[in-house]
Amino acid sequence: MRYALLVQGAPYSSQASHSALRFASALLARGHRLECVFFYHEGVYNAARLAAPPQDEPHLHDAWCALNAEHGTQLQVCIAAALRRGMLDEREASRHGKHGHSVEPPFELTGLGQLIDLGQSVDRLVTFAP
Amino acid sequence: MSSHALATGDLLVILRHAPHGSSWLREGLDAALVAAAFGQSVTLLFQSDGVLALARGQQAGPLGQKSTAPTLDMLAMYDIESLFFVEDALASFGLTQQDLQLSASGIPVTAIPELLAGHKQILTF
Fold this sequence. Notes:
The complex is a heterodimer of chains A (about 130) and B (about 120). Chain A is an alpha/beta fold. Chain A is about 35% helix and about 20% strand. In chain A, strands 4-3-2-1-5 form a five-stranded parallel β-sheet, sandwiched between helices. In chain A, helix 2 (about 60-70) links the parallel strand 2 (about 35-40) and strand 3. In chain A, helix 1 runs parallel beside helix 2. The relative contact order of chain A is 0.26. The model of chain A has no long low-confidence stretch (mean pLDDT about 95). Chain B is of the alpha/beta class. Chain B has one domain (about 10-125): DsrEFH-like (Hypothetical Protein Ychn, Chain: A, 3-Layer(aba) Sandwich). Chain B is built from four helices and five strands. Chain B has helices at about 25-35, 70-75, 85-90, 110-115; strands at about 10-15, 40-45, 80-85, 105, 120-125. In chain B, strands 4-3-2-1-5 form a five-stranded parallel β-sheet. Chains A and B meet through helix 5 of A and helix 1 and strand 5 of B.
């Protein structure tokens, strides 16, 4: 089956990201495909490129990047939810006159319409929220 | 699916949070509007604290957050007219249908599974 995940919990504040990552590895281990993870609401903080958790805790940002590198899973972040929370890629940072950026590939800022598209194009869209 | 289903459609958006205390309601309504703009038939279910979103007279308030009342008024423009609330939830706040900004249908908790079954996709906020 072709899956997509919707993550709405902030990393380290709620269990949502941890559970979503575990669900992702379980479905991939079963031979399913994970097309995309869509980050919305406080889930957008998962894209923070400067995340620096203690070494004895799971590095959630790196775990998402590994999903993309190893399985080609797209990492899409709702742009409206991201911008108001200070999550900007290089292009948005320059557009808003900000020094530095907080989001970089493989995470991509995209519209909420992508989430609606995903719901129609994959077999299962599973939500992880606090 | 039963032939006398409460409502059927492409997407059911469940709203469980009151306005202002968090951005759940605003971001859930945004998702509903985008889906409708993409041509999907959308139903809203206001559940638990979410029923407060329907209460008349919501304003921006001193914290400067945007009021969600204008967004609710826009629902009809996006053809989102299938609105439900859980009866017990509304009653638990001492509200009646007369206190609501929009016309919505009250359903008992026991009718929720039927609503879920009638939609291809469900997003919960």
